Amino acid sequence: MSKATVKERARYWFDNTMSRGTAALIGWLALVSLVLIVVVSALTVWLTPDEALRHDGWPGVLWLSLMHALSPGKIAGDAGTAPFLAIMLGASLGGIFIVSILVGVLSAGLRGKIEELRKGRSRVIESGHTVILGWSEQLYTIVSELTKAHASQHGSVIAILADRDKPAMEDAIRARVGDTGRTRLVCRTGRPTEPTDLDLLSLSTARTIVVLSPEKEDPDAHVIKTLLALAKRAGEHPPVVAAIASSRNMAAARLAGGPGVHLVDSDDIAARLIVQSSRQSGVSVVCMDLLNFDGGEIYLRRDPSLAGRSYGQALDAYATATVLGLRTPGGVVLNPPPDTVIGTSDEIVVLAQDDSLIRLANGTAPAEERHIVPATAPAAAPERTLMLGWNGRAARIIRYLDGYVTPGSVLDVAGDHPGAGAGLADLRNLTVNVKECDGTDRYALESLGVGVYQHVIVLSDDRYDPRHADNRTLMTLLQLRDMQATLGEKYSIVSEMHDENNRALAEVTEADDIVISDTVIGLLLAQLAENPHLAEVFGYLFDSAGSEVYPRPVENYVTTGGPVAFRTIVESALRRGETAIGYRLAAKSGNPPHYGITLNPDRSRTMTFAAGDSVIVLAER
């Protein structure tokens, strides 16, 4: 290769200088302008000395040349000899060239800067903010709930990093969530798995980090890689909350995230909620009411004055809060035995409208014995359940259902999914039969004899995209409701859907429960993002090993048809080893957003209950 010439080296240096951006171009223009002004001034002094003296010599000529270079229109007001006018004309022509290039450079630079800002690549300078990494349907629920939680706070910030266009993210959130009130959203474009992109969000000063499971193939691999990137970064490590789609990846995610990560098993929680809802109508609505920020929230509170009392006595301790359980050094226990003694280091798990409203009661009226119904244990009998459809969590649902039902119970799986009935070995109580059926076909459904079942579970088919799957679920629900109305049959219907927007449509079918899995997981992530210390509480709540939420007939607890204070219901439930936390009125069960549910009611307020109403309790199954 031949040696580079001086000309080539100079051109190479010039090209490198020009490639440095707008600042370098402006610098070159300034240099050219300086040369033009000096040359014009020198020519004026040399060729037209009289004109130079008339303009105060060198200083005046330099100023005059500068004005002609920056404002070519100055030539119109010039007067003097022909050489002087010719020199000024040259200065004006040079100025036109320089100013035109300057305008173009500034315009291009400004346009580039605006484009860079639109791409969302600038660093977030915040502290105490909530960071959301990734994008999924759950994001809208999380942003909406955190906005409610921060409604009274000034300067609240939610920073979002996703591999999407920044304006597109902002438009999508604005369309789905609406006004965010005092909470400010900051969107940035980048990959949550890339450490350099994570540095944009000032993670060391963040309050909480939420990692979402993306809507693409193998979402858990993406979440685990993000957790690894968070664990390896330098600086402070705020609490991390992450959603895992498949239970088999929980161990790997826990190892990747370390002790500071709180994991939510999406499949497991959705499966448990579907099973509980199929057996007790209204469970999913109660759980969503516990998880959202619209009404009551769960708090941990330490009151030394309650130390030494039993859990049963503590149920009347608060005037405006409902006691749910205890947090001891050994962990969280909801609805512990009534004689459990509260220790000095124990915290009370309470449900209240706001933590500022929690206060000890001066005293409560005694329960009305005449309204308490004696406890009777219902006789357990085999059940028949119909499952319409199949998906990846169906086998888990059936295994959980097997733990609830009595021996001799039957589950019929009807669908056209090729994997229907797979992976169901070693069931103890259930006998499972698989039938070929198109759940959207009225005649196929009628051939199943749905009236012989006590419970019907309609699953979303994972072979289709979520929108199409929800459409098929709606068709099945409509067919079932019409069959009930026509044939006079009675059975509970629980359905699984993806999109919260379809809930309003599904309510036309009058399904007993509609489990929107993405919404439930989004609500849970929002709660943990706001209060990471509640991970133990919600983990216990969704674990079948302990007490769970049950809406049970009110007539099993108190008399109906007359005014009864909720304090009496609390006492009746306590005698059964249960904790009453609210009630549901059947007459309002179709009215959103609470669907007849009242949690943490006023204990002294009387209510007249009717047949069909429910008491919501925490109880062993």
UniProtKB/TrEMBL annotation:
Regions crossing the membrane: 21-47, 84-110
Location relative to the cell: Endomembrane system
GO biological process: monoatomic ion transmembrane transport; potassium ion transport
Domain CASTOR/POLLUX/SYM8 ion channel conserved: start-end pairs: 268-360
Pfam families noted in UniProt: Castor_Poll_mid
Gene Ontology CC: endomembrane system
UniProt KW keywords: Ion channel, Ion transport, Membrane, Transmembrane, Transmembrane helix, Transport
Matches recorded under PANTHER family: ION CHANNEL POLLUX-RELATED
Name this protein carries in UniProt: Potassium transporter TrkA
Protein species of origin: Microbispora catharanthi
